[in-house]
Amino acid sequence: MKIKLKPGQQLWFVSDTHYNHSNICRSTTEWSDKSNTRDFKSLEHMNSTIVNNINKYVGEDDILIHMGDWSFGGFDKIEEFRNRLVCKNIHIVLGNHDHHIRKNKDNIQDVFLSVHEYLHLTVIKETHPIFHSGGKLSYEFICMHYPIASWDNMSKGVIHLHGHVHLLPNQRIADGKAMDVGVDGNNYMPTSLTEIISIMNKQPIKKLSLLKDHHETNELKTSKIESVYGC
Q: Is 60 exposed, middle or buried (0-12, 13-18, 19+ CB in 10 A)?
């Protein structure tokens, strides 16, 4: 997919909002171990914080790429969450919990501009023609809900964006050109194209290496990377 940003239009990424997920919210969880839950005083407190943070930064005419695990708590919450966001241009890369969206129940995919399992994204951004770029900047991304070890044109500096593992703020940036854009690693806020490029320009080209994460084991502890939430 190719996106050509209009003058003044911004591109944002977000993942793992888990809107209305009661078990991920500390005040409403039924999980016996609450240490890895989100510290909100109520489910609506969590929902409104995520909604307000997205609306604060992502304008009506901006573009938002959501990297999966959109909402919980019933089919109706998918559209409820969508209706609370002011952005008109939302694309989604499906996560492991987006069952109703994947099956397109009641044509729910229509609330998004596009729906993907895997997204090879090219972004064109206009600049002033006097710049050395000749008036355009181009960025290329491989977007998937899950982190992958190797991706198309990785050796040429293509950036991999993902969610799923709920990495903490000091862990969201990989050793190479890969990044977890989930809300848990960014104070429940979306991440801008500008921030991603600024960070990734400093990163080497390197194959992504992750230890076995908690989705594949009954234990939440790992020796180096601490991913949180069994979801």
A: exposed
Question: Residues of 119-143 as b/e, b for ≥16 C-beta within 10 angstroms?
Answer: bbbebebeeeeeeeeeeeeebebbb
Residue recorded with tokens 């997204």: 119
Q: Model confidence over 53-86: pLDDT tens digits?
A: 999 999 999 999 999 999 999 999 999 999 999 9
Give kind and range of the element (H or E) at residue 228: none
Task: Dump strand ranges (E) for 117-177.
Answer: 119-126, 136-143, 159-162
Edge-to-edge strand order for the sheet containing 178-180? 2-5, 119-126, 136-143, 159-162, 178-180
- Rounded CA gap, 46 and 17, in Å? 10
Kindly list the structural domains of the chain, giving each domain's residue range(s) and its CATH number in brackets, ordered by start: 2-216 (3.60.21.10)
> Is residue 45 packed enough to be buried (19+ CB in 10 Å), middle (13-18) or exposed (0-12)?
middle
- Total-model pTM: 0.89
